Amino acid sequence: MNILIVGLGLIGGSFCRTIKKHTTDTVLGMDIDQNTVNQAVESGAIDRQANFEDISIADLTFVCLYPQQTIDFITEHASQFKPGSVVADTCGIKNRIVSNCEKALLPYGVHFVGIHPMAGREFSGFSYSTDSLFQGASFIVTASKQSNPDAVNLVTDLAVRMGFGEIVRTSP
């Protein structure tokens, strides 16, 4: 599976490292800071830097940005995501994210799943990302009435493989 991570800070970087550690999936990474991308490639956290054309080859995309940036990125690139693919965010707020992102992606046959990993550190940035940040942590899935069950299962199955301890399903 091709997995794209947009935003390689603490959470995005830890997603990359953890997925690489526990799966054989291809991980592509995208960030506005080229030094961060270089660090992610050199450390083996990602297989290679992603460009905007790579959005169309990702089977699963995690957008690990601030809330408004998440909405803006997904809305701006909605037509580029691979039809049938899954897009998930990692924001701590959900209602506005889920409703805006579902509305943007639905016309293109792309599935959205709101998630929130209950993990973090007192530091931020890729340099502090680890492949064990999520070990035993709760993984919150905020499925809506429009959520595709197969998409939700894809994301939660990956969370289990990543070492999350508990999958919590709730409304946005």
Average pLDDT score: 97
Task: Give the proportion of residues in helices.
Answer: 25-40%
Strand content: 15-25%
The side-by-side strand order for the widest beta sheet comes to 3-2-1-4-5-6-7-8
What does this structure look like?
The chain is α/β, with parallel strands linked by helices and 172 residues long. Helices cover 34% and strands 21% of the residues. The protein has five helices and eight strands; from the N terminus they run βαβαββαβαββαβ. The protein has helices at 10-22, 34-43, 67-77, 95-105, 149-161; strands spanning 2-6, 26-30, 48-49, 60-63, 86-89, 111-117, 138-142, 166-169. Strands 3-2-1-4-5-6-7-8 form an eight-stranded mixed beta sheet, with helices on both faces. Helix 3 (67-77) packs parallel to helix 4. The longest helix has 13 residues, at 10-22. The protein is globular. The model has no long low-confidence stretch (mean pLDDT 97).
